[in-house]
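Deliverable D4.2, example record:
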Amino acid sequence: MENKNKVKRNLKQRHITMIALGGTIGTGLFLTSGATISQAGPFGSILAYIFIGIMVYFVMTSLGEMATYLPTSGSFADYGGRYVDPAFGFALGWNYWLNGAITIAVDLTTAGLITQFWFPHIHAWIFSGIATVLIFIINILAVRAFGETEYWLSTIKVITIIIFLIIGVLTIVGVLGQGNVDVAKNLTAGHHGFVGGIGGFVGVLLIAGFSFQGTELLGVTAGESENPEKSIPKAMNSIFWRILLFYIFTIIVIAAIINFKDPRLLNPNSTAVMSPFTIVFKNIGFAVAASVMNAVILTSVISSANSVMYASTRILYSLGRENGAPKFFGRTAKNGIPFYALLATSIICFITFLTGIFGTQIYLFLVDVSSLTGFLAWLGISISHIRFRRAYIAQGKKLEDLPYTAKWFPFGPLVALLMTAAIALNLDPTQLFSSRWGEALSIYAAIPIFIFLYLGYKWKYNTKLIPLEEVDLSRDKD
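Output generated by the structure prediction step:
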């Protein structure tokens, strides 16, 4: 008889692909991408997205190999516990849950900021609160209903970006815009397209990284997929083109059409924040289209928050089942939804999003905190994959028997590991000794919290690094 506390495998192949894509496209691309252009200049922002895109590609191929071999709702938290050390998996799980709670809060705050386009005199937090209730209702429905909702919302995102790219290219070549856009001037703004030098570039890597967060949803959805051995490889095979088309090309178009000094771009001093997508349509004289675009962006941001809520809830559910959290978090309702995990995540998200009321500086601070916790998750995926593959070979198994094999091993995960570690550790340590030391300390807090969780669990349960020959390579699923 099926365990009543297990999530149900109701997500179809089309759901998996679109949820993985839709969870990635949201606040990071539609709003905070403007902050990278504002702070690093056109070429600085483009280079930052290329840099992070390469890293994410390697992280995702690593996750894809493990997710097809062992589909589980706990995803990389489970892999860290199985292939590295139970304490490592415990720390990864709580880190990602924290990441999700903050990311959803950022998305909810973004939803409020976007509505200011139409209602500048109404407090943004009112619309953020409405969005909070909406995503809670969607997530409390059956998994199949959630999958259908995200499928159509993600489809809208994809169509929107394709239309945006077409119009953007037509504007760049001079077909649209009535000559109002000086592409050459925009791309060479600052010092040959760079602003702030190396410091400016390094400073926006976290923001660019935030834009890519959600790609790891692929691993979480595998646990509720009807046929992960087929759906995950299919989604993985298109990830390179998704990164290239939906991120790199989009940033190039935005940077070419919008000057980095545009006051409507997100930055610490912004008073009237607007999405770069909306600014592009206003700049080329499509006022009505700008309003429509703003509405689409609003649904996209809510969709992104919805996907992250799903992932965070499943991670907390998995921790509850594995004794990494109170046991009631590992229980599900009759429809297979981990209700208590969902409720706890929603409450924390609501409390966190209230901090966004205090302005764009606090908003960007939350983006940085979320990004750093996301980088730690990617770091964990790379380490887990290296251990998984080494254990797989050490135990005499054949690579051709894997449902999906990550390319470029071990180069890929090693590069991703070094890149994530370098970015996480080299943000701007000098801020710790400046007047902004409190803010900097909070941003860096994710690292000591992770270490505390890891060492605390290790001390309590006396866990050790699992020898390769003893790594659990069984394919038991939750």
